[in-house]
Structure formats: C-alpha cells, structure tokens
Amino acid sequence: MKTKSLIAILTAGLVMSGCNKFVEDYDVSPNSPVEANAALLTTNAQVALFATYGGQLARTCGIWTQQLAGTDAQMLDHEAYRVFEGDIQNEWDGIYADGIETCRDLIDNYGAGNPHYTGIAQVLEALYLGVAADLWGDVPDSEAGKGIENLNPGFDAQEAVIKHIQTLLSSAIGNLGQAPEANGLLPGGDDLIYGGDVAAWTKAAYLIKARYAMRIGDAAGAKTNLTSAGMTGSADDMNAQFGSAGTELNTWFAFETARPGYIKMGAPFMDAMAANSDPRIPFYAAVDTGGIYRGSIIGTGDISASAIGSYLQGNTLPLASYVESKFLEAEALFGSDKAGAATAYNDAVKASVMQVTGADDAAFEALVASETVATITMDKIYAQKHVALFGQIEVFNEWRRGDIPALTVNPNGSIPSIPVRFPTALEERLYNTNAKVVSDLTQKVWWDN
C-alpha cells in the first residue's frame, strides 16, 4: 500500500511538473494584468471620476436645484429631500476607494521619475477632494486613501481641504511642466481625457484653481489663475469621455435607459429658458408625451413631462470647461471692471450656445448676451451660469453661493427647506471611529456660511 501510494504521488508530481512547464507564461492573460501600473491606474481613476461627476450625485444635485424633477421611485424620494446615509454609500466609496486611493497609489508607487503621471493624478485627486468637500463639508483628506492601513481616517476641516486642493494643483502644474525626457513613462491613450497632452492638463489645473478661489470669494486669485489658464475655446474643455459598449456608456444615458420615467425636466428651469426662447431647449430636453417641451412641477411626480434630451446623453460631459472659465472671469471682474465682466459674460453665454447647439443664435444673443457696463449684474451672471452648466454638480455649488435662481421648497418635502449638503455615508458612521457625522441636510458647509 505504501509503495503504491508513493508511486502515485511521484507520478502526480511528474505530471504536475510537466503541466506547469507546458503552460508556463501562457496562463497569464494580457487583458487581465495581475499587477497595477501607471497606465492602468490612470484609466481607472478617470473612469471612476466620470461616474462620480455624472452619476447619482449629479442627478440629485440637478433635482435639488430644480433643473430636473424626480418623478418616480428613489428619484421621487430625492425630490422630497429623502436622501439617507445608505443612499450615497456607493458614491462615497467611488470618491475614496476608487478615486483618491487610486490617485495616491499612482503617485506613491509610480510617480518617482514620472512627473507627468504625477501631475495628472494630482489634478484628478483635487477634483475628487473638491466634490467631497463641496457636498459633505469636513471630509477625510490628510489620512485618507490608505486602504486597510488606516480604516479610521480623521476628517479634515473643509477650509483645510480647499487649501490642500490649491496646493495639489500648484504641484500638478509644476510636474506637468517638466520636459518629456524627465519622464521614464509618458501618458498616452490611457489618459482618456486629454491623451497625454500636458499643456491641456495645465490649463485645466489653472481653471480648477480659479473655481476654488472663487468658491471662497477670492476674486484676485481667480483672475490670476484664469489668465494663466489661457483657455481660448471648447477645444480646451476637460470632458468625461464615453463609448458605445455596455461598460462605457454615458452615465446619464445608462440611467435613462434602465430607469425611464424616474427623472424629468424641472418646470422652473424649463419655464425660465422658454421665457428667453433659449435655443438650448431642444438639446437639453426631449418633447413630452404631447409633443411639446414642458417640465414637471415640483412635488407632482409628472411622468408625462419632458425627459432629458440628447445633450446629457452624448459621448462627452464637461468636468471643467471654457464656458465655466468665462463665467468665473465675469464674476471675478465684476467688482473692479464691469465692462470686462460684461464682455466675459457675453462670451460665456455665446460659447455655451455654440457648445450645446453647434450654432450661433443672433436673436437670443441680442436678448441675453449683449450686456454692457451699465446693464451687467451678478444676478444675470449667476442665472445664465445656472443654465450653461446644466447637469453638472457645479450647479448645486453655484446655487448655494449665489441663491440664484430663487427656488420654491417642495410642498411634499420631508424637511422645511431645500437641502444644502449630503448626509454622512452609512459605513463612515458605523465603522469610522473618527467620523464627523451629520444627518441634517440643512446644515451648511463651511464656505456656504
């Protein structure tokens, strides 16, 4: 028995040895890498960013600012301000586990000798931190992104996070300015946003710096960064990119396809655009069941109203754009140079119409985009920025900063006013002993005070 057992074991060992030799180097799929690398991490960080900026957070922000209306299921709940800690757990995980942790992994493990990859990762990290701080206030930052090495990261004050965003972007600009030969590896097709064009990344970094300077009322800082950005048109836009395969679909399109009727256009937004015969209406919205463009009145759940149109469901969505840069310029100049502010505002509106429709509209421009030193107002700047940034999280941020447009509280709302933040994510409350837990959706974040 022992001899037979020994022979069997030896035979099995020889067979296994032969098999291992036979399949050596052939059992590893080139399409399923077992180790991360700079290119893979860059692509993953960008794809997760597209989901963060174009997914559930953007939909809810659009509903709360009444560009959109929640008309069925969970989106009807969101319109009634019933957003709970478990509802946004996936979005929180997308920001931290898929986003910030990936960016910091890229910098820590592949950044040495690759300043262009480092710079791109820093810009992406700044965007992730920005949306987290804008929507939640105090959030993990200095101790975040370490995975299992720190499961209880402390929460940094929002003011400190915004300062860190500016530091990250300044460092990114320096890294992106390094010569190509200073890099061991250069980004290319793995960079879905700009294809490795570091000059374009630099412009975007300066624009985001201007965004966060203006967020805290630093007009001088915004002007300086906008000048450095030097954006000249939509070719400079920082866009989320989508494809036609199931896993590449535009997040708005995928949601509309899977859950038709959950979201419709909001009546306040549609009515304001209709009052100006806005040429962007047929791109922002589809016709309703009666063949006209019409939004759902808040609180009614009108599923027969217009659905979102082709603009939000295309192959690109703006993350930071030339249009935004011109509106920021108009605001930054308003206190010191109203003529310059009027020109920047007019350029912003015209650029938005061209971006959305592909053509100029002389009649609309004469009505809305012909401001002068005597007629330009901050109300007009905020009102048209609200229209131009349709579907972006930034609309919610700008509404909280300027209180424009004036919105009506949902009469069926679970709280007496429109939310101004998101609740702390469920797993942070349950498992992070250092979490700063906020469940009150009316508690303003630092910069909103």
Description:
The protein is mostly helical and 449 residues long. Helix content is 52%, strand content 4%. The chain is built from 18 helices and 6 strands. It has helices at residues 2-23, 38-54, 56-64, 73-79, 89-110, 115-136, 158-176, 198-215, 219-229, 251-258, 267-275, 281-284, 322-334, 338-357, 362-368, 378-388, 394-402, 426-431, and strands spanning 68-70, 139-140, 155-156, 238-241, 263-265, 316-320. A two-stranded antiparallel ribbon has the order 1-5. Helix 5 (89-110) packs antiparallel against helix 6 (115-136). The longest helix has 22 residues, at 2-23. It is globular, with a radius of gyration of 25 Å. Mean pLDDT is 92; it is low at 1-31.
Note the run of SSEs as H and E: HHHEHHHEEHHHEHEHHEHHHHHH
How much β-strand is present in the residues?
under 5%
Sketch the major β-sheet.
2 strands, antiparallel
How many H/I helical runs? Answer: 18
Number of extended strands: 6
Broad structural category: mainly alpha
Q: List low-confidence stretches.
A: 1-31
Cα-based radius of gyration, to the nearest Å: 25 Å
**Bulk shape:** globular
Give average pLDDT, whole number: 92
Give the helix proportion (percent range): 40-55%
